[in-house]
Amino acid sequence: MSAATAPVDATADGLRSDDLLRVEAVDGGHGSTAVLFGVSLGVPRNGLCCLMGRNGVGKSTVLQTIVGLLKARRGRVIFDGQDITKLRPYDRARAGIAFVPQGRDCFPQLTVMENMRVVQEARRDLPRSGIDDALDLFPRLKDLLDRPAGFLSGGQMQQLAIARALVTQPKLLLLDEPTEGIQPSIILEIEDAIAQLKRTAGLSILLVEQYVDFALRLAERYAVMDGGRVVDAGDTAGLEDGHVRRLLAV
Ligand SMILES: Nc1ncnc2c1ncn2[C@@H]1O[C@H](COP(=O)(O)OP(=O)(O)OP(=O)(O)O)[C@@H](O)[C@H]1O
């Protein structure tokens, strides 16, 4: 059996056999630059895993590898029981994975509503209620539907980016640093929205976040990276106060 298909110890790195997403011993990177070395992590069904680590340790690279923008050179990505390691990004999206990248990726010239419609038009298989459901989660956006996204504040833009991703009614949402550059009152709104998503939409979430308190309040599972490797992972329940902070040397 090759290394790429060898079964991974279900107890290592906080992985569980019933996780919605399992990243198993993945090596990856950008072009010829190796960044990830044997990364394993799991996202529980209807739960949230926060992925933490200092700048440049490879967190965004993990997300890009999960959605297929970057290739895994070794290891596997298993989603909802299916090996998606070789699937194209479009097919991973159709399988139910939505990604909100760090730059938030909205079209600045299009209005809030147009940004959401673009997603719906691209995916005619989606239920028409997707936009209304996403807006219910972020009521502030309802007053801004005709505003070009380029004129939104950072917090409003982040809310739009998450709302757009939700239009696809995903099973798994990948969020890359949603609090970055956002004022504290809006961070609380985003935290409420994520908590509500878990409660009512039964969504699973992989959250990359440097704001440790925010991440740990929302998470059932955590993983900490350093130098392209997962150096600690597990359940947040019973986690000793300050454990993660010491690992991050904050
Ligand atoms: N397009 C790219 N080409 C080559 N190297 C890259 C590219 N993007 C990122 N890297 C490198 O990959 C490594 C990991 O970057 P990555 O963005 O995944 O880290 P991160 O943990 O998400 O950091 P941050 O919190 O700053 O976003 C870094 O050394 C970075 O310089």
UniProtKB/TrEMBL annotation:
PROSITE patterns registered for this protein in UniProt: ABC_TRANSPORTER_2
Annotated keywords: Amino-acid transport, ATP-binding, Nucleotide-binding, Transport
GO terms, molecular function: ATP binding
The keyword Acetylation is assigned to this record: no
Pfam families associated with the record: ABC_tran
Gene3D superfamilies documented for this protein: P-loop containing nucleotide triphosphate hydrolases
Ranges of residues in domain ABC transporter: 15-250
Family according to the record: Belongs to the ABC transporter superfamily.
Protein name: Urea ABC transporter ATP-binding subunit UrtE
